[in-house]
Amino acid sequence: EVVVYCHCRDCRASNGAPVSLFAGYRAEQVEWSRGETKGYQSSATVVRSFCPACGTPLSYEDERLPGEVYVPVGIFEDPAAFEPEAHDWVSQRIPWFNVRDDLPRHEQSSIPR
Asked: Under 8 Å CB-to-CB from 87, ≥6 apart: which residues?
């Protein structure tokens, strides 16, 4: 499991927030307990899913990261249990939004592709 903030434009647009916090898992570790998700191609290599009943964003999958699923931490019953490890895509960060911490900051993704 990896837990990272993402400051990229695509994540902001899909989640409606200035930054997103994702927990990354191997695909076989992810199971949805309340029915099926609905997916859409948000860019050339990315599929995002959401709940078809309420619209909640549920996952991010990138073909450049095969077998990995990234889940927004806010959907978990106990989001406080997730400790962020890094900030990704700070090159696209909104200038007025700054999380003040000592975590590593990466101009692009910290996740090896």
From this structure: 4, 5, 7, 93, 99, 103, 104, 105, 106
Block residue for tokens 């927990």: 23
Q: How confident is the model at residue 111, as a pLDDT?
A: 74
72: number of Cβ within 10 Å: 22
DSSP letter string, the chain = -EEEEE--HHHHHHHTSS-EEEEEEEGGG---SSS--EEEE-SSSEEEEE-TTT--EEEEEETTSTTEEEEEGGGSS-GGG----EEE-GGG--TT----S---B-SS-SS--
Torsion (CA) 44, 60, 109, 80 in degrees, nearest 10: 160
pTM of the model: 0.88
